Protein 1
Amino acid sequence: MKGKFITIEGVEGVGKSTNIAVLEELLRDRNIEFVRTREPGGTEFAEKLRCLLLDNAGSNPAALSELLLIFAARADHLEKLITPALELGKWVICDRFTDATFAYQGEGRGLPREAISALQSLVQGKLRPDLTIILDLHPEIGLERVRSRGKLDRIEQETIDFHVRVRNSYIETARRDSGRCILIDASTDADTVQQTLRDAVADKLPELR
Ligand code: TMP
């Protein structure tokens, strides 16, 4: 692929949007063409699946159905948006990707890692992010922020234990895949988080120095 694929992850309310804006500014300053997208979602079909997945008025799907719907959305997103953009040399900034599936459906819901890895290979082939930024925060703090913004969606409404497992999965991913991932402490003030992000990204990607 000619473009670079950057993903950003973390627990609910960790501040992904603010930090994606920092990343967008870095790319714009260097005249790098990019698309910003999100998961689940990013295409018309995948956004419909997102509504179904996050709807807290509907019935709860089986954990395996949830997993399959997420990969169904991802397959459409990859085929129609992510892969074509990367092939054209554009960079892609994606708000969540498969590390979220290992965290939420794997550690959160307790589905086996091997099942997720198998779907990952089927849907993505060899495509993996070039860089993943994982923002770390205790989920109690993140969920408090989300609550102050309004009603919680179906996944946000999960127990605190679920969200702690999600956090631990992200920390483990950052440790296991330290070449690809940057783990950033998001509990400090916004300016410090953003400066840490700029420095860490420049360290990993020479184009952003
Ligand atoms: P967000 O984009 O506002 O963070 O919301 C997306 C929600 O979807 C969030 O609760 C995490 C969840 N999710 C999964 O459970 N598995 C996944 O693979 C992805 C991408 C998201």
Protein 2
Amino acid sequence: MKPKVFSGVQPTGNIHLGNYIGALRQFVELQDTMDCVYCIVDMHSITLPQDPEQLRQTTLDVAALYMAVGLDPKKATIFVQSTVPQHAELSWVLTCNSYTGELSRMTQFKDKSKGSESAPTGLFTYPLLMAADILLYDANIVPVGNDQKQHIELTRDLAIRFNNKFGDTFVVPDYKGMEVGARIMALDEPTKKMSKSAENIHSRISLLDKPEKVKKSIMKSTTDSEGIIRYDVSEKPGISNLLTIYSVFSGKKIDEVVQQYEGSGYGQFKKDLVEIVNEHLDPIQKKYYEIRESEELIKVLKEGGEKAGAIAENTMKRVREKIGFINL
Ligand code: AMP
Ligand code: TRP
């Protein structure tokens, strides 16, 4: 049997190069050889306030981007989390089998809540919903960026604990990250990860950015004053980040790129990177605009939801039985 894969992306703002390089690229690679389920996790997005109409739109945006980067609904199941209510149901069961201590240790919660007493409860229990997503589909592998590794480790702990307590129920999943690009950094502050929520739009490149915007963001990106192109994450985080992006989009190893630019300045390197990124984004954008308004998109999500719902219900039957919920 093929290994099972599950992953998800939040429909909050537009997908950026970090999401693409760290996560979506793997989604596409895996769909040919594995049994893949990819979700648009709108229930995770409401952990922070959202405009309802905008959330509906960005949910469709992300679905269209999934297909624009190469996900094929004939190969992978694509669906929206809130259309399968078993996610919320399992999440509650896991909530009752987890500890506040282990959730308090999640670095994403610490970052996002900043120690505030008025942090939304959903932000705190967010990793349990994520664990439910993964465990419902018996996933062996979860392709994500490096920032989600801790959440996968928690999911493993929860699955093992549940299995020990109630008998074999869940598959224990493994994290899968990219060797190059598991953590793409912000262009303006290369010691922080590129994120959808940073205020400065030049900190990230969205997959839908126009060529002029891409140019501006890359040309303005923070580097250093040494003037030598070499890969050194601690001393030269800016150039190292750009080298990573260059390497991924050109298909060349980082060493090769470094060699190619021996003796060149940052200006030329950045100009070439602008071209490479724009060349890569152009076909994605063309496909996105074709799909976004199509009937096809809705059909894919409806069918995906039905397929995913059937798998999720099977798992929930097992779970309800184990924990003692009545079956009338
Ligand atoms: P999110 O936007 O938080 O829903 O993230 C979607 C996927 O992109 C997850 O697998 C993240 O781990 C991944 N991701 C987000 N930001 C980055 C980044 N800066 N570098 C690499 N991967 C990222
Ligand atoms: N928490 C993930 C993020 O912010 C998104 C996510 C939700 C996810 N559920 C998931 C990723 C299940 C992988 C598997 O990036």
Protein 3
Amino acid sequence: MIETWMRLGPHVQEALAARRPVVALETVVVAFGLPRPANLEVALEMEAAVREAGAIPATIGILEGQVVIGLRPSEIARFAEGKEILKVSRRDLAIALAQRRMGATTVAATVWAAARAGIPVVATGGIGGVHRGMPFDVSNDLPTLAAEPVVVVCSGAKAILDLRATREWLETHGVPILGWGTADLPAFYSPSSGLPVDARVDSAAEAAAIARIHWALGGKGLLVAVPPPPAWAVPADRLEQVIHEALAEAAASGLQGREVTPFLLRRIAERTEGETVAVNRALLVENARVAAQIARALAASP
Ligand code: PSU
Ligand code: MN
């Protein structure tokens, strides 16, 4: 029984029972994606942004052998301390549960859990995707998006990735990418990757209408790609040099698997003197706000 392995926080249980809009939030960004103390501040700001926009936040993580959907602030703070935490993607779920490890959930594991709980919207910063060059590395965020009927609100895939290949992967597996007020696919820290989205939407109602029909047709995940707030955005050409250096360092130090993304984000933050942390913070909060609007539109009758 899946219930053995999952627990809803009281605020989430209540919201789902009353059919109120709920937005799921991940914990890998808290435990591994941002430096302290920004990580906890942002996690709480995202929850506040969801509430201000009229939805209920459900931050997800693994504690004491259960996937908790709707962590309390004191529990979120434990994830922000970052001690002895496993980065849990889909393949790690059973391991973390059986071994009773504290686990931060990636977009993939968060989407999986949200779908099980009947939460149709997840907000994050940048999804994982196809990494550049060799060795072969594709985030489980992609196949999970192709498998679960959830809207993931993000600022595209992380700029460290091969965005063209990531976009092609999503196309092959039938995941539409909607641009929030833009025809350009954002590149996480910057507003444009130079690649197009599949359709521009200018309101939550438009995004929700497409999601509903996608699901009625048997489709699964959708991406809503929100450009980072302009005041914080870092131009892509300025970042590219820094990304190249960070990638070369990662390759030289032989990093592999789940350690690669946190290492690159940390290095790029250091080399831009925190500029990427500032934009990452801003876009996470903005994406949470947009996700709440879409959750509300989905909860309203069509
Ligand atoms: N968004 C951010 N920062 C992050 C992430 C998303 O702004 O650190 C996390 C998400 O949890 C995503 C993960 O699932 O990075 C991707 O990791 P990987 O490339 O190892 O699959
Ligand atoms: Mn990977």
Protein 4
Amino acid sequence: MATNNILFVTSEAYPLIKTGGLADVAGGLPTALKEQHQDVRIIMPAYREAMRKAEKLGFASFNMEGLPETARLLEGRLPNTTVKIYLVDSPAHFDRPGGPYSDPDNHDWADNAERFAIFARTAIAVATNKAGLDWQPDIVHCNDWQSGLVPALLAQYPKRPATIFTIHNLAYQGHFDSSHFKNLNLPPYLRGIDGLEFHGGLSFIKGGLIFADMINTVSPTYAAEIRTHHFGHGLDGLLNHRADRLVGILNGVDYKAWNPANDPLLKHHFDAHNLEGKENNKRQLQKKFSLPQQSESPLLGLVGRLVEQKGIDLVLSIVPQLVQNNVQLVVLGSGHKRFQAELLQASKDYPGHIAVHVGFDESMAHQIEAGADMFLMPSRFEPCGLNQIYSLRYGTVPIVRNTGGLADTVIDAREENIEQKTATGFKFEQASHEELWRATERALSIYRDKPKVWRQIITTGMKQDFSWEQSAKHYLDLYHLALAKIRH
Ligand code: ADP
């Protein structure tokens, strides 16, 4: 494919700011696209934390069409890459403590609609070459509801770039009170149920789903699932209507940041040929979490947002069985207060077995991936999931629910897959306590009784390749399709 100018619109990008998988994608995909000779540039809000971490930050533009004078565009580099990043600097909206979407107490910012509307309008100024940059994208690649207004507002420009909308998680939709149609000065064609109205309110994500030239989500299985009532979050009808524009592209992972052979966040390194370092990481992890340093006790890890989606209640429900079977569990995460409290209580009730750290800690996440024997991911739904892919590379056998990206990345240790040496993990179907425990039991029995088979499962997993290069090529095909749509 020829070189395209691509504007990548995202509300988070690792390592500048991260709450979840979108940040990892925004940190990895643009670099992979650059390696495919694309001129890709990121645009993101100038959050306080991101401003601190961005490299070589300077002013790019003061005067952007359709934006107040208080908004400016800064330009820098995504750290450790050659990818250009524009930060939308509107201090009243973004220069504050807390997260990208919520305050330090985890409540959504009250002005999120205004914040991501100004972000979208700035992206549009860049997309239409009205931001004083003398650069115009051929493709505008939007991600999740925070950028949903971009395809919606761009639709009114006769000569516009092609638009892509990637769904990283359909559960988060950017739903606001209908008064915002007026407050945000949205044009009349965006009103009504054929526009952005949803259950009487304003839905940002509909902007992407209705108006983007092509839509994708982050795994083939999730792309099929979201067209069903069960997984559609009320948008399955619309997604079916646009099914000819909807595809699934599995996320890649950044093996430069996630490689146990040279991960700077680990004390002991290892690879598929030499797992001694993994044993040392396990001991260290047990020590860090004040668990008995027994190499024979299976150690389970879990890293993630502590929310219903991730099946945290299912994990809590198998705690008694884990304890009875002399299993250790280390959890790192933050999220719903109820799950945090119940996990902390479990760690008090069973101090030698369950250890919990509430918070967000990149380096601890790497240490858990490296030190655990198995990784729990019993998600109710999972658009792609990255932790199970990191787990595979770190020799930490994933135990996952057979849904979304988990279904697409883990090969179950059934008899025939073990025989053919293709097994990489353990899968179960229903989101129930019984099924999670049965899958865990299957894993524990092979771990304890069949060390050779266990070793085979580990090394098969470590050799899987989910690097960004493949995914980037699929995105190039998608861009091609979107360009073809607007040219006809
Ligand atoms: P989601 O995007 O639904 O949160 P993913 O598995 O796609 O789930 O991506 C989550 C990313 O965030 C992974 O890189 C994971 O390691 C990281 N992560 C989640 N919670 C934490 C935490 N508490 N501390 C450190 N990293 C975390």
